[in-house]
User: Fold Amine oxidase domain-containing protein from Bremerella alba.
Amino acid sequence: MPKDFLKDTQDEYDVVVIGSGLAGLTAANTLARQGRSVLLCEQHYKLGGMATWFKRPGGHIFDISLHGFPIGMIKSCKRYWTREIADSIVQLKNIRFDNPMFSLSTTFNRDDFSQLLIQEFNVPEATVKEFFDTARSMNFYDDQGTTTKQLFDKFFPGREDVVRLLMEPITYANGSTLEDPAISYGIVFSNFMSKGVFTFQGGTDRLIKLMHEDLKKSGVDVRINVDVEKINLENGRVQSITANGKTIKCKSIVSNSNLKLTIFDLVGEQHFDKKFIEDAQEVRLNNSSTQVYMAMKPDEQIPEETGDLLFSSAAPAFRTDLLLSRDITSRTYSFYYPQTRPEGRPRSLVVSSTNARFEDWAKLSEDEYKASKADLAETTLDALEKYVPNVRERVDHVEVSTPKTFQRYTKHALGSSFGTKFEGLAVSRAIPEQVPGLYHAGSVGIIMSGWLGAINYGVIVSNDVDSYIMKSSTQSQLADSSK
Ligand SMILES: Cc1cc2nc3c(=O)[nH]c(=O)nc-3n(C[C@H](O)[C@H](O)[C@H](O)COP(=O)(O)OP(=O)(O)OC[C@H]3O[C@@H](n4cnc5c(N)ncnc54)[C@H](O)[C@@H]3O)c2cc1C
Assistant:
């Protein structure tokens, strides 16, 4: 008999959360703390979604998306998770850039960036100040017509080097481009510039373990290996889910599954207005990634001066199409030193990440796919040699992931690393107007993606869900008392 991963579930829950990415986990925890009964269903055998890791023989643990997030994570984790989680967030102090235009190190905050722009790039101090103030004052309700390119043209006309310094890390952090609305750049850039780039000490495995413990404490019914096949409606409202062949009733649903999958597969477009479906069809998915994971032999350490995050590029100029091309010119290296996981034997690991297009990998035959992965590993080792001399002799394990890998493990269409482009946010927020009781929380619209964006979106949506359940129960009590 196959194992029943839904054994002993309740017949009904206040909320079912579909997916255990950071938004799903946070929504589930927040709602359970608010006193709601919550079932969390994750199709994979691990919680965390893109916030994940894998282990390989020799004691190597690779993090997939733990490269850096803004300081806001400390506040969000303290408020919506635990002090232990918040206290484990530490700064990455050595962020490096190395490309044909410039090579520099920075702590990646406003003071340091201002100094660099004024002293190394000769930008007038008043312009730098005005740019930072403009970026910091941006919010979601501002003009969405101005693009990031127009913003840069206004402050730094003709300065491709300045644009590269300001844009390259953000493109890496959330896939945004010069053509995206300036607010999607300004908000994320200012979040980082407030205090720099942070990471989680102990690695993603420790974070997710601590989150799982807190979910259990909050009373969330956590189930892995549970693939939700259908969201069922009654009179247009949420009624239940069907997962692993079982139907479970609920008052409300938070889908942390990909936005498009939620609308078109889990619910079905016949349940939405025509205009809403047109808007949803127009939503563009964000790009995907390739990664090369490299673990050094146990006695081989990388000196910490090498940097924490290194944005390296051989391209003469910054261009989005070059960043996405299979002909790779840009790589972002994350260096994990022994203090990332202070317990156990000291280890140094490197993860090289590059933004990528799904179709470049999906179109390959099995043999071509294998060869392309091998080529990516080889060319990355060649490129890393510049920063880690003799790396080939010193490396113990090398492995590659592609957009197909991300799709396989998270079900994200096109293996999208950062959800959807900007327009996805309005569609995600409009779902409950279409299907009462149904909410979406997860990487959308650039602003709500990344670790911090996903956690914060989970909180926002859980508050909406709580109000919805409260309102519906008041309405049904009033209906009962008038009978
Ligand atoms: C290579 C890479 C590097 C990144 N680097 C960074 C970084 O440095 N900093 C940063 O802040 N962010 C980074 N990110 C982005 C960040 O990891 C994501 O934005 C964030 O983790 C997404 O969280 P989410 O809540 O949207 O859910 P996701 O992580 O997308 O998870 C969704 C979950 O839903 C589950 N699911 C889907 N459908 C179903 C179903 N039908 N039934 C049950 N379960 C389902 C999936 O299995 C998955 O677990 C990176 C991402 C990638 C891929």
User: Anything to note?
Assistant: The mean pLDDT is 95. The pocket of flavin-adenine dinucleotide is lined by residues 18-24, 41-44, 49-51, 64-65, 67-69, 173, 227-228, 256-257, 289, 291, 353, 406, 410-412, 417-419, 442-443, 449-451, 454 (CB under 6 Å). The radius of gyration is 23 Å. The longest strand covers residues 246-255.
